[in-house]
């Protein structure tokens, strides 16, 4: 069943990519712009209030790494919105999502409190959901010559 679901997702992404008029060199579409602005907003929050963000996601009160994650998010958002090669910046977001998930998983494994673990599970689910959007948007901006 999981293989069929994965095949369906990749099939759907491929059909989106084939019908997309964007070729990786054009301005970002609506979804990419939304992800660009989301990235900037999240990055600003991570840089402005790393301890609060860390507590919110369940990773504890430290938050030392979040300003670096925030800088990465802001750079990706600005890159997407600049419109020169949004696909490359969107794939950068996908890579960042993988780093975020690894960070959250590591925090999950080190937490013992149920409340923090529930927050971490919710945070991982949210990042996984955004990752799907990032992958779809990135595929929409890949040129046929890049495949």
Fold blueprint:
Elements: H1 2-19, H2 30-48, H3 50-57, H4 66-82, H5 86-110, H6 114-140
Helix pairs in contact: 1-6, 2-3, 2-4, 4-5, 5-6
Architecture overview:
There is one protein chain. The chain has 147 residues and is mainly alpha-helical. The protein has one domain. Helix content is 78%, strand content 0%. It contains 6 helices and no strands. Helix 1 (2-19) packs across helix 6 (114-140), helix 2 (30-48) crosses helix 3 and helix 5 (86-110) runs antiparallel to helix 6 (114-140). The longest helix is centred in the C-terminal third of the chain and has 27 residues, at 114-140. The radius of gyration is 16 Å and the shape is globular. The model is unreliable at 17-25 (pLDDT under 50).
State the share of residues found in helices, binned by percent: over 70%
Total of domains = 1
Q: Provide mean pLDDT, rounded.
A: 83
Distance between the termini: 28 Å
Query: How much is the radius of gyration in Å?
Result: 16 Å
Unreliable stretches, pLDDT < 50, 5 or more residues?
A: 17-25
Structural class: mainly alpha
State which percent range the strand residues make up. under 5%
Determine the number of helices (DSSP H or I, runs of at least 4 residues). 6
Sum up the overall morphology in one term: globular
SSE order, one letter for each helix or strand: HHHHHH
* Largest β sheet strand count, sense and barrel closure: none
The total count of strands amounts to 0
């Amino acid at each position: 069943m999981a293989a069929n679901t994965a095949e369906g997702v990749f099939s759907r992404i491929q059909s989106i990519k084939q019908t997309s008029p964007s070729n990786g060199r054009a301005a970002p579409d609506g979804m990419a712009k939304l992800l660009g602005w989301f990235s900037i907003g999240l990055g600003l929050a991570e840089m402005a209030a790393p301890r609060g963000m860390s507590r919110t996601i369940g990773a504890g009160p430290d938050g030392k790494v979040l300003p670096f994650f925030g800088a990465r998010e802001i750079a990706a958002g600005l890159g997407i919105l600049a419109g020169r090669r949004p696909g490359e910046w969107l794939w950068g977001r996908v890579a960042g999502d993988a780093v975020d998930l690894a960070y959250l998983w590591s925090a999950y494994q080190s937490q013992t409190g149920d409340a923090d673990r529930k927050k971490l599970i919710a945070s991982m689910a949210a990042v996984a959901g955004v990752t799907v959007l990032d992958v779809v948007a990135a595929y929409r901006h890949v040129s046929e010559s890049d495949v």
